[in-house]
Design goal:
The complex is a heterodimer. Chain A starts with 6 loop residues before the first helix and ends in a 5-residue tail after the last strand. Chain A has two domains: 316 residues, ABC transporter type 1, transmembrane domain (ABC transporter transmembrane region fold, Up-down Bundle); 206 residues, Rossmann fold, CATH 3.40.50.300. By secondary structure, chain A is an alpha/beta fold. Chain B is of the alpha/beta class. Chain B has two domains: 310 residues, ABC transporter type 1, transmembrane domain (ABC transporter transmembrane region fold), CATH 1.20.1560; 210 residues, P-loop containing nucleotide triphosphate hydrolases (Rossmann fold). In chain B, 62% of the residues lie in helices and 10% in strands. In chain B, strands 6-9-10-3-11 form a five-stranded parallel β-sheet, with helices on both faces. A four-stranded antiparallel β-sheet of chain B has the order 2-1-4-5, with helices on one face. Chain B has a two-stranded antiparallel sheet with strand order 7-8. In chain B, helix 19 links the parallel strand 9 and strand 10. The longest helix of chain B is centred in the middle third of the chain and has 55 residues. At the A-B interface, helix 2, helix 3, helix 4, helix 7 and helix 8 of A face helix 3, helix 4, helix 5, helix 7 and helix 8 of B.
Chain lengths: 553, 562
């Protein structure tokens, strides 16, 4: 587990830049609300204190003021929370999209990752950070303001009390760092449990057929419960640690109260009776309330900081998620693609998955426009890698891949903007999936609007219109369809876009002979350039020529 | 129907009581009781502290110095006691929350992993993941914090109000009124909040499901150029979640506002009433201070309740979905976990007989399998062939018990066939996160010799031994780090190790080159000597030496339906 650094919070701060106004408003209203609350309690204590000691009642203006303050406080509280929460949710929504963008430039990474884990980063950690954005900055500023106001008031009433408060506030602030390492550690362990659980369950759901047929529900549940127990144990420890620091702060607050009472009792001349008391006992309740309000504000701010420690791991993961290494560089130039037929050229292409052994090493090949070419070779010889590179899911480590126009001039894939590239090249590979939704939605995914008659014509070409309509729901990953049906719809989805280059990886492998024949027919009739990776003799036979790859391992 | 169910279960009668979660919490009687007892004791120390402070103030006024010191010492002692009590409380609460989460998962996971999901076009893994992980974790704040806080309000508030009323009836009346307002005021919003909570969880689930799907299919989305479109869609979903969250939050904040108002107004009213009496009637100073301090303490449980409500509410929005999943079913109706080793009773069987089996997908006009009768025997490899949609995979699912036929029966040596009699290698086999070894021994422990023999038979041994970690090499999610062919052969090894009398293989050679494919077919012929082996295949070359072939012919291909 990489150590999570508290700096993660700072790397996330730039997201707040556009929210400066909201944060200032939130601070102003929050401070007004906190000061109003202080005023209410101080005034009430003042009234009671004077009533007891001097048997006097304040003038009617005080009553009106109190009622006004109570009403004002209610409105301010509501307004403050409303603004700060709305702000936090805006920031979080923006962060979710920033994460999606980052992943769309970095997935599939060469080292495969777990999608369950990835999703739990996006959903869970971001929700956890709501706390950070909704409360931290404005709240700490409010607390400091309240502390200074009350400190000045207390010092004005009795300088010694001000001193006690200053000492108390400092000791409370010091507790902010108490146990931070353990909390950070527990926080990241807790998060690890959550993502483990997420991983386990996503696996089980994805492999439901195997889970059921091998009777694995028992072990899977047991595993999840063990993870739950571990998580409970960790969160219990975290709760205890948090409670301990809270209690220590409470104790300090109590000490401040005791100190204020003791110093004011001294000042009132209770113990030595020098004749002229510097402080009236009537103001004592008010003084206690003022100093309490001050140290409570510090307590709240430190509690917030304490609660941030366990979130460090979440902040860290979100920060790292937003700054992932991209798998393809952004297009350098935006050259226009000719609308005519396009060929494909591999110029000394090298690629490796682990930066050690090359799967492809200085590989050269040229496919002229309209040619149908196969790639053959044993497992692991890099057939799929060639298709993946031609589809620009990754960039080669050395060498280049170009589309060749009629005139023979080559345009590097790196110089074509993504939308034009995706229009020109269509891919059907082993990992091609259908998405939750209707057949129409699947066919049109990423393509412009199209008339139903066109879509139906394509379904006809892959002989799918006899078993499916455009309105049918295919289910997640096309689960409602057999493997052959899924492959035909994936091919149909590629054809709908009328690409100039069609890249195909092993799709005929798992198909029945009828589907294989249909797909081969469609490909044979296809006018554009075709590159097929396959080990099937039947598939390769029908192509213009076949390139042979040899295993470099 | 789903909507109706969910709304019904959200119509909570009074307060913020979620009966399902209370039931689960009360189930752990001792833990539940202690969590509340510790909490009330912690509250008692607050009241004691109020008494001590009032005493101190009164002593200062009357100039009794020794009493002042004694009372200050008491305040300190009480604070230390509270420290210990609150630690015990936090410990107990965390344990209670953990017990309930554990129990919910114990019920919800088996309920989520049921065969109908395989054919349910509305099923979304991301949504279920959200409920099982985030949803159940979300109940923690309610169970561990909110429930004890509710009990505390019920137990402690009346006592404090009565005490204040004894000291000063008018002040008591004010405080009592304010407590009542703080508790009932938010009820006005409850209905709205519940409905909005429903929207909130729906949005959360939608977003979670969409994200999981797009991250899983990111490669496909990229080659389709569908990233911008998907981004727009997710953005809309994310915005929907944001506004749903904001709406829920507004309601919950309005409640906090009402509570806050009642708290402040109550304290001020009680304080001024006491002051009025002090100024006119001259009661002892101690009592007046007590009224002021206790009035404030009367609201402490309510403030705590309101604080925890804020945190607990979001978790509650997932409750209806969890009800639907079956997390709260008290009857343990799900199948008891099978213990693989014990379930391996018959390791061989002679024949598998299918007797006039008919299966029709729900809503379909024509059956996929129509009065199918066939016998597969041990000793020779059997094949099932037919065109796309002829029902080959459907037949396998019927054999496995994932689909229940309309009529007919399936017998293994004269007894009903059970799914525990069958080992399966599916068309797109999935491996679990973990090591290769863990994947191979899912049905029970096996010796190294057995592992190697099975892997050699499946033609994968050399590649496994070629890895630096051998059998302990990690397989990443769903086996995606392996090639399709490697996955298929590992799945075959896994099925061979399962020692079950029937082996179903769906297209075992689809991702293999000619040499490897021939090896695997040879292996299947060999293992067919001591078990019944059924293979779905489209490859003419795979069928060369196969004597027993079942042709499925569906001349009216079934339309897929929703």
């Amino acid at each position: 587990m990489p150590p999570s650094s508290p700096n993660a919070f700072f790397t996330l701060l730039p997201v707040l830049r556009t929210e400066r106004r909201g944060m200032i408003t939130s601070y102003l209203i929050g401070t007004a609300s906190a000061l109003t609350l202080t005023a209410i309690t101080v005034l009430t204590a003042w009234v009671v204190g004077h009533a007891i000691v001097e048997a006097s009642l304040p003038d009617p203006f005080m009553w009106v003021a109190l009622i006004g303050l109570v009403l004002g406080r209610t409105i301010l509280t509501w307004k403050e929370m409303d603004i700060s929460h709305a702000l936090a949710y805006r920031v979080l929504a923006r962060m979710r999209m920033a994460l999606f963008d980052s992943y769309s430039h970095s997935v599939p990474s060469r080292r495969r990752e777990h999608s369950g884990q990835t999703t739990s980063v996006v959903m869970d950690d971001i929700e956890k950070l709501e706390f950070f954005y909704a409360h931290t900055l404005a709240q700490i500023a409010t607390s400091i303001t309240v502390l200074f106001t009350t400190l000045v008031t207390a010092t004005f009433l009795l300088p010694e009390a001000g001193l006690v408060m200053t000492v108390g506030a400092n000791s409370i602030a010091a507790t902010a760092l108490l146990g931070r390492r353990s909390m950070r550690d527990l926080g990241s362990k807790e998060q690890l449990c959550r993502s483990t659980l997420s991983t386990e369950l996503v696996d089980a759901l994805g492999a439901l057929r195997e889970v059921l047929s091998f009777g694995l529900i028992g072990p899977i549940t047991a595993e999840a419960l063990a993870t739950t127990d571990r998580a409970t144990d960790i969160s219990r420890k975290r709760a205890l640690l948090a409670e301990l620091t809270t209690a220590i702060r409470d104790l300090t607050v109590t000490a401040v109260v005791i100190g204020v009472i003791a110093t004011s009792a001294l000042a009132a001349g209770l113990f030595n009776d020098p004749g002229e008391p510097r402080f009236t006992a009537a103001a004592l309740p008010a003084l206690i309330v003022v100093s309490l309000a001050g140290v409570s504000a510090v307590t709240e701010a430190t509690t917030t900081v304490t609660q941030l420690h366990p979130l460090t791991a979440s902040a860290d993961r979100v920060a790292r998620g937003i700054h992932r290494p991209t798998v393809v560089d952004p297009s350098k130039a935006s050259e226009n693609l000719p609308s005519g037929p396009l060929g494909l050229r591999f110029d000394h292409v090298s690629f490796s998955y682990d930066d050690q052994t090359d799967v492809l090493s200085s590989w050269c090949a040229e496919i002229t426009a309209g040619e149908h070419v196969g790639i053959a070779g044993p497992s692991g010889s890099g057939k799929s890698t060639v298709i993946t590179l031609a589809a620009r899911l990754w960039d080669p480590s050395h060498g280049g891949i170009e589309l060749i126009s009629d005139s023979g001039s080559g345009i590097s894939l790196r110089n074509i903007e993504d939308p034009s590239l995706r229009k020109a090249i269509a891919v059907v590979d082993q990992e091609a999936t259908l998405f939750h939704g209707t057949v129409r939605e699947n066919l049109l995914r990423g393509a412009g609007p199209m008339h139903d008659t066109e879509l139906l014509a394509v379904l006809d070409r892959v002989k799918a219109s006899e078993w499916v309509t455009l309105e049918d729901h295919v289910g997640q990953g096309g689960l409602r369809l057999s493997g052959g049906q899924q492959a035909r719809l994936c091919l149909a989805r590629a054809l709908v876009r009328k690409p100039q280059v069609l890249l195909i990886d092993e799709v005929t492998a798992s198909l029945d002979s009828e589907t294989e024949r249909i797909i081969s027919d469609v490909i044979a009739d296809y006018k554009g350039t075709v590159l097929i990776a396959s080990h099937r003799r039947e598939t390769l036979q029908r192509l213009d020529r076949v390139l042979h790859l040899t295993s470099t391992r | 129907m789903r909507e109706a169910e969910r709304t019904a279960s959200l119509d909570y009668p009074v307060m913020m009581i979620v009966p399902e979660l209370w039931r689960e919490a009360v189930r752990f009687r001792a833990r539940f009781a202690w969590t509340i007892i510790w909490l009330v004791l912690v509250f008692a120390t607050h009241v004691a502290q109020a008494l001590a402070i009032a005493w101190t103030l009164a002593s200062v006024i009357s100039g009794r110095a020794d009493e002042v010191w004694l009372a200050l010492g008491m305040i300190l002692g009480i604070a230390v006691l509270r420290l210990l009590l609150s630690l015990a409380q936090a410990d107990s609460a965390a344990r209670l929350g953990g017990l309930v989460r554990r129990r919910l998962r114990e019920h919800a996971i088996p309920a989520a992993l049921l065969a109908p999901r395989l054919h349910d076009t509305t099923a979304r893994d991301g949504a279920v993941r959200a409920s099982l992980v985030d949803g159940i974790d979300g109940t923690d704040a309610y169970v561990a914090k909110y429930i004890p806080a509710t009990a505390q309000v019920v137990l402690a508030c009346p006592l404090v109000v009565i005490t204040v009323a004894i000291l000063n009836p008018w002040a008591g009346a004010w405080v009592g009124l304010a407590v009542a307002l703080a508790l009932t005021g938010p009820l006005l919003w409850k209905k709205v909040a519940s409905r909005r909570g429903l929207d909130h969880w729906d949005s959360y689930e939608d977003l979670s499901a969409d994200l999981l799907e797009s991250l899983r299919g990111m490669a496909t989305l990229r080659v389709l150029g569908a990233v911008p479109g998907t981004r727009r869609r997710l953005h809309d979903r994310s915005e929907a979640l944001r506004s749903a969250t904001e709406r829920v939050m507004r309601v919950s904040l309005a409640e906090t506002g009402v509570t806050d108002f009642a708290v402040q107004a109550g304290v001020v009213a009680a304080g001024t009433t006491a002051a009025l009496h002090a100024a006119t009637g001259q009661p002892p100073a101690l009592e007046t201070y007590l009224v002021l301090l206790l009035a404030s303490e009367a609201f402490r449980p309510i403030r705590e309740l309101s604080r925890h409500w804020h945190a607990g509410f979001m978790g509650l929005t997932a409750v209806p979905e969890m009800v639907r999943l079956g997390a709260f079913d008290s009857s343990a109706h799900h199948a008891p976990p099978e213990i693989p080793n014990a379930a391996e009773s018959p390791t061989t069987a002679r024949e598998l007989h299918i007797q006039t089996v008919t299966y029709r997908y729900p809503g379909a006009d024509h059956p996929v399998l129509k009065e199918l009768t066939h016998t597969f025997s041990r000793g020779t490899l059997s094949a099932v062939v037919g065109t796309s949609g002829a029902g080959k995979s459907t037949l396998f699912d019927v054999l496995l018990g994932f689909l229940v036929p309309e009529s007919g029966e399936i017998l293994l040596d004269g007894h009903t066939l059970h799914s525990s009699d069958i080992a399966v290698v599916s068309q797109r086999p999935v491996l679990f996160t973990g090591t290769i070894r863990q994947n191979l021994i899912v049905t029970g422990a096996r010796s190294e010799v057995e592992l190697e023999a099975a892997c050699a038979a499946a033609g994968i041994l050399d590649e496994i031994l070629g890895c630096s970690q051998g059998f302990d090499t990690e397989v990443s999610e769903a086996g995606l780090s392996l090639s399709g062919g490697q996955r298929q052969r590992l799945a075959l090894a896994r099925a061979l190790l399962a020692r079950r009398p029937v082996l179903l293989v769906d297209e075992p050679t689809s991702a293999l080159d000619a040499v490897r494919a021939a090896e695997v077919i040879h292996t299947l012929h060999r293992v067919a000597a001591d078990r019944i082996v059924l293979m779905i295949s489209h490859r003419p070359e795979s069928l060369l030496d196969v004597d027993s072939v079942l042709y499925l012919d569906n001349d009216r291909p079934d339309r897929i339906v929703r």
